[in-house]
Specification:
mainly alpha
Amino acid sequence: LEVTHSNSSAKEIRSWLSPPDSSRNHNEAHGKRQEDTCSWFLDGERFLRWLKTPGFIWINGK
């Protein structure tokens, strides 16, 4: 009985510590997106240049 309880507790802890499901978050946000939102950015020269290079992009919001 103790082993079962211990396994259950460990499973709950792992679940609590695991990262959120980013694909679910992305799909939910994508469903709420307005048409042409952010097109000025996605079609912009800086973003398109970044797509062609290795590395990351840092975006700050207001």
